Amino acid sequence: MNKNQHNTRIQKAVQCLASLQEDGKLSHCTCDGEPNPSRDELKEIIELCRSVLFPGFFGDNAAINPATLPYHLGVNMERLFSKLSSQLYAGMCFGDDNRQMSERKALAKDMASEFIEKLPEIKEILTTDVEAIFNGDPAAKNFGEIILSYPGIRAIVNYRIAHCLLQIGANILIPRIITEMAHSETGIDIHPGATIGKYFAIDHGTGIVIGETCIIGNNVKLYQGVTLGAKSFPTDADNNPIKGIPRHPILEDNVVVYAGATILGRITIGKNSVIGGNTWVTTDVAAGSVITI
C-alpha cells in the first residue's frame, strides 16, 4: 500500500468521525477563551485541600510547627483559591451557563472563597470520620496511620470536598471528577450528591457504591463490597429515565452494613440495625433489626 492510499484511509476516517459528531453528544465545542476543566488541576486542588486539612501529613511539610503553621496554611489557601476559582469557572464554561464571562469569573471567585470559608467545617466532620475508623479498627495504631494510608478516609475526604462544592453551586462535572479520582484510587464510589453524617466509617472499602440520593446518618459503618443503589426507575412518555427523584436507601444512625450486602431502592434501614454480609435488602428494615441470610 502506498502513501496516497494511506492518506485516503485517514481522510475517510476523519470525514466519518466528523459526521458522527454532528449531534454534539460525544463531542464538546468551546467558545474562544473558554477553558475545559482539567483533571490535573483538580488533582492539585485536592492535594492542596489535604495539605490544609491535615497539615504535616500532606504537602510541603518540612517546616511545619506551631510557629510556621499559619504561614503554611495561608500560602496553600492562596494557591487553592486561585486554582479552584479557575476550575469552577471552567466548569461553568463547560455547562449551559449563559452569563457573561465577567459574571462567571466573579461568581467562580465567590464560590471559591465560600468553599475556603467552609474548610474548618469540613475538617471538623473529617475528624469524626478518622475517629470512627480508628475506634472501629483494632489494627489501627494511631490517627496518622489512617490519614496517610487508609483508602476509606481518602475516599471520604474527596467526597466531603466534592459534596461541599456541589452544595455551593459548582457545575456537577467538577465534584464528579473529584469523587471519581478517589474511585479510581480506592475502588470506593461515592456520588457527591449523597448526604452523609458524622462519624462515617469505611472498613477496607473496595467495591463500595453509594448512590446520588442516599441519606446516611451519624455513626454508620460500611464494609467492603456494599452497594447502596437504586432499583429500576420510572421513565417518561418517551421512555427516558426520570432523573432527580429519590431512588437510593436511607440509613439511619448507628447502622452497620457488612461485606457484600446490597441495599436497593428508596427504603429505610432503621437506626441501630445490622445488615449481614451478602444479604439482599429491598424493603424497609425496622430499627434495631439484624438481617442475615
Task: Kindly describe this structure.
The termini are far apart. Helix 7 (151-167) packs antiparallel against helix 8. The relative contact order is 0.07. The radius of gyration is 22 Å and the shape is globular. The chain is of the alpha/beta class and 293 residues long. The strands form 3 sheets. A 5-stranded parallel sheet has the order 1-4-7-10-13. It has helices spanning 3-20, 39-53, 69-94, 101-117, 119-136, 143-149, 151-167, 173-186, and strands at residues 189-190, 195-196, 201-203, 209-210, 215-216, 221-223, 227-229, 250-251, 256-257, 262-264, 268-269, 274-275, 280-281, 290-291. The protein is built from 8 helices and 14 strands.
User: So what's the overall shape?
Assistant: globular
Return Rg in Å.
22 Å
The helix fraction, in percent, is: 40-55%
Low-pLDDT runs? none
Percent of residues in beta strands: 5-15%
Give, in order, the helices and strands: HHHHHHHHEEEEEEEEEEEEEE
Main β-sheet, in a few words?
5 strands, parallel
Q: Give the count of helical stretches.
A: 8
Strand order across the largest sheet: 1-4-7-10-13
* N/C terminus separation: 64 Å
DSSP strand tally? 14
Overall mean pLDDT: 92
Q: Which structural class matches the secondary elements? A: alpha/beta
